[in-house]
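Weekly modeling sync, notes
Attendees: S.R. (lead), two postdocs, one rotation student

Agenda item 3: backlog of single-chain predictions. S.R. asked that every request posted to the team notebook include the full sequence so nobody has to chase files. The rotation student volunteered to paste the first one in as an example of the format we agreed on. Action items at the bottom.

Example entry:
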Amino acid sequence: MRDLKRAEIESILDFAARIEQGDVRPDLTGKLAALLFAEPSTRTHFSFDTAMKRMGGQTLSMSGTSSTSLQKGESLADTLKTISMYADLIVLRSAVEGSARFASEVVDIPVINAGDGANQHPTQALLDLYSIIKTQGRLDGLSIALVGDLKFGRTAHSLVQALSEFSPRFFFISPQHLALPSYLLEDLREAGVPYQELTSLDGIVPDLDIMYVTRVQRERFVDPEEYERVKNSYVITPAVLEGAQPTLRVLHPLPRVNEVSTAVDRTTHAYYFQQAANGVPVRQAILAKLLGTEGTK
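Predicted structure, as returned to the notebook:
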């Protein structure tokens, strides 16, 4: 997300809104996107597939690596170079941090980072911003709490970087050993963005515009016992949200385990399923821009 500045972010979000409203209709007929997902995915994979097909494009998909020549010892670079011969664009998810940047250096077609380990998830951050502007009417000057696993949560990392362009006030709520990485905190200090690191939501809910909840990610833990100790650190229930502003919205990149009670689904604060739906127009905008078509009226 560091590569995107405010004007570029706003351009993507505006384009996504025009696509969703039907003001523009990008045409990707004859274009093919390779969706390479070495890690499990539901929303990101399906929304990229949907986004491409709604614009007349096609996709080829890989889920896991068990049926590829990577199992025979082929290098990732050779796999990527080969696939780039068939596609116009690559969407890549990998457990390896930096894999998307590496891919962009070995192929001559655009590469979209669909999540690289515990590092970044930039297209999720863009759909999160789109969700925030749809629910709050603005991005500037909001009070935002990020709750849960902020150490391994790549969606949180990307969102913090993206929102730092819009004068936020951050509250970071996590167990101490799952706190936001120090390099992100240093970036915020240098940018003059105010934040507090807390271990509890006590006393701050009435001040919030957005509560962004993340699950504690079992797959990032080496020690299963450590995961069991922290997996239920925060559970958002209607009682937790008592006293919140009527306009507060609870976001979650999903999947959830039990960190947001299903009882919250029935409140006006819940927005996470609409948030997932917002991935389609945002990813349509990203795909169309990278493949060189702004669409027609």
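Discussion: group reviewed the output briefly. The chain is about 35% helix and 15% strand.
Action items: rotation student to repeat for the remaining queue; S.R. to check formatting next week.
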